[in-house]
Specification:
The complex is a heterodimer of chains A (117) and B (118). By secondary structure, chain A is an all-beta fold. Chain A has strands at 3-7, 10-14, 19-26, 32-38, 44-50, 56-58, 64-68, 73-78, 87-94, 106-107, 111-116. Chain A is 0% helix and 53% strand. With 118 residues, chain B is an all-beta fold. The chains are: A mainly beta (117), B mainly beta (118).
């Protein structure tokens, strides 16, 4: 079974400050890892994903995340927060294996990011 | 290129009434998902289709929920009868077929249907 834990349901930062959103996962097989962003009354938009290869992944809007297998983590960072980054962020895990679970995304509970001036 | 289209965006119904949601996936995407998102929670998979076949419906409450994707393109999700606890956002997503390769794991989401049962 796979699961995702996002530490901190709310994170507040100042504009220009570092953004760090934490995600830990549990998976019995090598995972695919994703970060999605959700703006109010909108669907989910993919920020970035890790499947194979380089463990530091760069995404849209200046976000990046690093897959650390030893720590089972996939934390999301951005060096300088912008007001437009205020949204809810979801970490998710999937894996490319056989059976009915293929492609199924298991999401964390979400972290609401607030950016204040 | 159009993204995943869902309708309606919002729906308010009285309990015990039926309701249906519609989803049109991205053209060429053979895999379609329905997710349920409760307030303050991450989405949870209800059902996944590969073309017209439901390959994972283990989380679908079959006593009141049903889904179909008759021609392997658009899909409907139905609740009958609706209960107060069904108030949530219902998200549809699609991805390329299961033909291998990491590219095929990316799911694209629609804007969702927000259901309120009163």
């Amino acid at each position: 079974a796979q699961s995702v834990t996002q530490l901190g349901s709310h994170v507040s930062v100042s504009e220009g400050a570092l953004v760090l959103l934490r995600c830990n996962y549990s998976s019995s097989v090598p995972p695919y890892l994703f970060w999605y962003v959700q703006y109010p009354n909108q669907g989910l938009q993919l920020l970035l994903k890790y499947t194979t290869g380089a463990t530091l992944v760069k995404g849209i809007n200046g976000f990046e995340a690093e897959f650390k297998k030893s720590e089972t983590s996939f934390h999301l960072t951005k060096p300088s927060a912008h007001m437009s980054d205020a949204a809810e962020y979801f970490c998710a895990v999937s894996f490319n294996a056989g059976g009915t679970s293929y492609g199924k995304l298991t999401f964390g509970q979400g972290t609401i990011l607030t950016v204040h001036p | 290129e159009a993204g995943v289209v869902q309708s309606p965006r919002y729906k308010i119904i009285e309990k015990k009434q039926p309701v249906a949601f519609w989803c049109n996936p991205i053209s060429g995407h053979n895999t379609l998902y329905w997710y349920l998102q409760n307030l303050g929670q991450g989405p949870e998979l209800l059902i996944r289709y590969e073309n017209e076949e439901a390959v994972d419906d283990s989380q679908l409450p079959k006593d009141r929920f049903s889904a179909e994707r008759l021609k392997g393109v658009d899909s409907t999700l139905k609740i009958q009868p609706a209960e107060l606890g069904d108030s949530a956002v219902y998200l549809c997503a699609s991805s390329l077929a299961r033909t291998g390769g990491s590219r095929n794991t990316e799911a694209f989401f629609g804007q969702g249907t927000r259901l309120t049962v009163v």
